[in-house]
Fold these 3 entries.
Entry 1:
Amino acid sequence: MEGLPAFIKMKKIFKYRVNDGYAIMPQEHKLIRVDYVNDSQYEGWFAWSIVDTEKLETTQKRFVGRDIEVTAAPFSSKKGLVRHEMKVKEKQDIWLLSPPVFAEEDDGKVYIYTEDKLVKREQYNICFYKTGQELPDNINDFTYIGLNRIWIVQELGLYTFYRKMP
């Protein structure tokens, strides 16, 4: 998935209910996830977008179909991937042999996956942000690779991004 458009200065991830295939979102947004939720608080289809909190008043009705592919790595099989356990910190640098392609949570632990082919050892900045948390101004420089669902009484979604360090 390419970086976000440079002209959009975005700051937070917000969740929007999808009704009849549409969600009402701010005019300037970057859709990163569409998913069905069925927990003790919510049930139904929702869309998550990165938005600029200074421009929330200008909205649009956006088609959000269930088949829209918005994640960077919709893998049905992890064959050919190398799993790396991550400590949950807001930001961390890690040396990997190939770029991250997918992120997930498994039994309370957070993982990122890389392809098993060796490219060259490079340093990547891995960042986790939760819904509604303020994002850095340079979020356009990062690539979204997935959501890690951590359960602490209710779901805490940690959106995983990376960027290659210079």
Note: Residues 4-8, 71-77 have pLDDT under 50 and may be disordered.
Entry 2:
Amino acid sequence: MSLDGANAWQILAHIIWRASRPILFAVAVLSFVYSWNEFPFSQILTTKNAVPVTVGATFFVTSYGVKWGATAAAMVLGILPPMALGCFVYAFIGQSMLRGAVKG
């Protein structure tokens, strides 16, 4: 198979990869965010020694009350990685949404 003298690897690298790159980045970011937010599974399947940040924030709810400052700080720390990743690949997500909608 040849396209103007290009072999299969050149077609893959120069055409297919460039066309699908924004979509793949968007899928990777959304997959990360969805897996980061799996609170019920992580609460059930983890031990007290190693827990995700979102489950660790629930440890500040005690029988004496809720430590709102510590809970808010833990949630802010839990939000930072997905938000930083989303800001970093924001342009790729926008390109992936417009890739099939705009001709040219």
Note: The chain has a mean pLDDT of 77.
Entry 3:
Amino acid sequence: MTGKRRGLLWNVARAALDRVRAASRPDFSAVPPLKVDTSRQSEAPVVYYLCPDFDEASGGIRTLYRHVDLLNAAGVSAAILHTREGFRCTWFPHDTRIVYAARVTLRASDVLVLPEVYGANLRKVPRGIRQVIFNQNTYLTFSRATLESAEERAPYQDNPDLAAVLVVSEDNAEYLRFAFPHLRIERVHQGLDPTVFHPPAQPAGRRIALMPRRYARDLVQVVQLLRARGSMERWELVIIENRTPRQTADLMRQSAIFLAPSNQEGFGLPPVEAMACGCLAVGFPGHGGREFLRPEWSMPAEQGNLIALAQALEQAMRLHMENPAAFQELARRGTDFVRQEYAPQAERADVLRFFQSLLAQAPREARP
């Protein structure tokens, strides 16, 4: 059997395995039964972050855990709310406070934070508890909608318990303000851990890091376009999959370039993490990434144009080989920007300011 045929069979088998895995996964958009007692106030109101029972690498879930840690460290009682008894994420280290839906009774003074991934199922959350929708990717807001349906907008429009919506980028704030101008929309910055995501002591060699979990087809096309041109001969691909944050950061520091064909992203955390680790980011802004994937310190390509993306990657590779000083200066500017703009203290300030303000307000009376 030729290598080409083996490769084809492997790709077919892998695609079939991916379909089986997707079909066998539980529905993480199902809201668990929640007990509510609106007749009682909590002595110390608790901020509960409802979180899917999903134990694979997910920047969005790691952000939920981090918010809870920030609140508890500041003296604001908070907890991750999982459905399955005993479940906790194991793919990154943490000592986050976790509680389980069957053991919790929500009080009128508590706050329930709901990720956007629950979609129209958010309508099933019991009434009488203040809600905050944490929408980390507004392009998922209507992802299950049809041209006629109204269910997906109901949690935002027909919800007297909704106090505010949190987002993680200005692009997403603009999206929701256009759709729901009556809502309170607040942006909270993402925070990078500088002990994990930091540049290397020495410039990286000819390696291109990428994460194929979401945009594998686009990545394959770009890489094969440049292989056909002979541009990849002296470069190594670093494929990052199923790694802890520290392992991911180590691989990024070993790479000169990070390739990110993002599309309809609420923010786009991987390229930001890569820039913090000293990579020159090349990719599509994906809308949410327009605030950091800028030509002053990266190489953005026209959204969706694979030829333009391949050309930008080739330009970055050529700059690295022909003018390494200019390459390092460009990458350094990107590193400096993201480490300042997305510093942990910026995230902490945003999260605390929002929840301290919300908890200072008296909860609404329970409604039927």
Note: Residues 7-25 have pLDDT under 50 and may be disordered.
